[in-house]
Design goal:
two-stranded antiparallel ribbon, endopeptidase fold (from Nostoc punctiforme), six-stranded antiparallel beta sheet, rod-shaped, 338 residues, 51% helix
């Protein structure tokens, strides 16, 4: 015998339908795929820059530079992870909003059915608490079907809300890791700067030229600075055309000799070839040991010392001496050979 269309299984009591109506109006956002907690890797301990010798400071500087590079990459990774987490949060929010918007019309229809039945004076029949054992009315069955659909949507909304909350927490966690990585990187850079200052102080040389009355300070521990210090030991040596030491020099010969003393022999004894080497340096960025050139045809050169002074072997009848760079109006450029 075919089942009577008016006999339908009783499913929802009054309290369940009421809670559906309340619950759909008070849900909070979250995400469907709970993101794994972000655990930033602990930064390596920063070595204390305590050495007092050049060798010790250089070893400390190497370690700090390596640490700074590692922390920079962690910072870059955290920044990428933050952008991913923020995108996932935005996607989760959109999905939760979409589902809430989808459920709203069904929630309103269910509310309207409940209100209409209540006004008709038979809420118990609608919600199934007073119906006969044979089943629900057509109106009650319609409401029950609507409530079932809303219940399914509410379950999806709850999942989306949970996912959104997880995404927000993930974003906050990754943002903190990013901030921590940035602070660690800046701390490492600060320590690198401190060691470099100590190294520069340890490797600072003051020189005076009794003939010109000028003095200069050579700073740094790189190859160019070492070359400049070596060249300063030849203050007062006579200029001899085409000479490259050890007791007399021309302008490029002094540079060739000084570089040979610090482990870089065989440089060309010609200003044009020397100018083509190394890295070009602007006048405002000159450092001790940079090479400075003069004249449109680079007919003269010298070794920058610092404080606007340079060392050079000027011309026949003169000696290796310290001069002011500002006294030259034909400055043509500078380079750094390391």
């Amino acid at each position: 015998m075919a089942p009577d269309s008016h006999r339908r299984r009783r499913v929802l009591p009054t309290a369940t339908a009421t809670l559906l109506l309340i619950g759909l109006g008070a849900t909070a956002p979250n995400l469907a795929h709970a993101a794994q907690p972000f655990r930033p890797a602990s930064a390596p301990s920063t070595p204390s820059p305590t050495p007092t010798t050049e060798k010790g400071l250089r070893k400390s500087l190497d370690a700090l530079n390596e640490e700074a590079e590692i922390l920079t990459e962690k910072f870059n990774k955290a920044r990428v992870e933050f952008n991913k987490a923020r995108k996932a949060e935005q996607d989760a929010t959109k999905e939760a909003e979409r589902l809430r918007a989808l459920a709203e019309p069904a929630r309103r229809r269910l509310g309207a059915l409940a209100a209409a039945n209540y006004m008709a004076g038979s809420p118990d029949v609608l919600f199934g608490s007073g119906a006969s054992p044979e089943g629900l009315s057509d109106r009650a069955y319609l409401a029950q079907s609507q409530a079932t659909a809303v219940l399914a949507l509410k379950k999806q909304i709850d999942q989306a809300d949970a996912a959104e909350r997880t995404a927000k927490a993930k974003t906050a966690q990754v943002k903190k890791a990013w901030d921590d990585a940035k602070k660690a990187r800046e701390a490492a850079r600060t320590k690198v700067s401190e060691v470099m200052k100590r190294l520069d102080k340890l490797t600072t040389t003051h020189a005076s030229d009794p003939r010109t009355g000028l003095s200069a300070t050579v700073k740094g521990s790189g190859l160019p600075a070492k070359m400049a210090r070596k060249a300063l030991t030849k203050l007062g040596s006579p200029y001899v055309w085409a000479a490259a030491g050890p007791s007399s020099f021309d302008c490029s010969g002094l540079v060739v000799w000084a570089y040979g003393q610090v482990g870089k022999p065989g440089l060309p004894h010609y200003t044009g070839d020397l100018f083509a080497m190394g890295t070009k340096v602007s006048r405002g960025a000159l450092r001790s040991g940079d090479l400075v050139y003069f004249g449109g045809n680079l007919h003269h050169m010298g070794i920058y010392l610092g404080d606007g002074k340079y060392l050079h072997a000027p011309q026949t009848g003169d000696v290796v001496k310290i001069s002011k760079l500002s006294d030259r109006s034909d400055f043509a450029g500078a380079n750094r050979i390391s």
